[in-house]
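Slide 14.
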Amino acid sequence: MLATVNDISIHYELEGPEGAPVITFSNSLAATLELWEFQVPVLRGAYRILRCDTRGHGRSSAPPGPYTMEMLAADVVGLLDFLHIERTHFVGISMGGMIGQVLAAHAPQRLEKLVLCDTNPRVPPEAGPVWDQRIRQAETEGMASLAGQTLERWLSEEYRRNHPETTARIREMIVCTPVSGYAGCGRAIAGFDAWDELPKISARTLVVVGEKDEGSPVSAAEAIHRRIARSELVVVPGALHLPIIERVESFNDALLRFLG
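Slide 15: predicted structure.
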C-alpha cells in the first residue's frame, strides 16, 4: 500500500487486528520492510503491525538528497497521521534506531514504548570519509559492489553459510536499494547526533545490541542506555548487526517480554 506523505509516496504494510496496540518497525539503511519477516508471525495475533520502507528504499519514493534524520522522522509522523494512528510502539534498527531517537525526543506524544536495536547515539566527524567513500562507490559502481561487505558486517560467516536463502534475500534488498536513496540516507546518518537529546526521552526504552556488532557496538548501546533514564539493555550473544535475523528467538523473546 502507498501513502502520500510530505510530497512523496511511502510504501507500507499494515496487518493485525483492528483496535490492537500498534507496533511500527523501521529498517536499517539498504533494507526494506521485509527485514522484519521473523518478527511479524509472533506479534500478528496481539498487535497491529505497521512496517514501512524508509524514504529512498524499497517501493517508497527516492527523491534526490541529501536527507536528514529529522526528515525521515517526519515521514514516520506523516504516515501515522495518514493512517489515523495516535500512538505506537516503535522498533527501529540501525538507521531506524536513529529515527526512533529523533521521534522519542521530538514527538514523545506519539510513542508508547521504544526499542532501539544496533544503533548509535551519534556519528563522529571522523566517520565522514567512510560514508563519503561508500556513497561514492554506490554512485560509481552500483549497489551490488557494496553487497558483500555489507553482509559481512551484518551477519556472521556461519549464519551466511548455514542460511543461504535468507542471506540471498537480504543481499537482494541491498542490491535493489536506489542509489539516490542510499546516498540521501547515508548523508543523514553521517550527520546524525542525538547525544544531547537522549536525556529528554521519557518513553520506556529497550536497547538491544548484537554482542559482536562492530558498526554499532555494545559500547554505543551502553551509552544510549546510560543517557535514557527509563531504559534497559539486552546484549544478544553471538550476533552481529542483525540480531533480529541471526538470533531471532533471543530477540523476539526480549521484545515480547518488554512489550508485555
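Speaker note: The radius of gyration is 17 Å.
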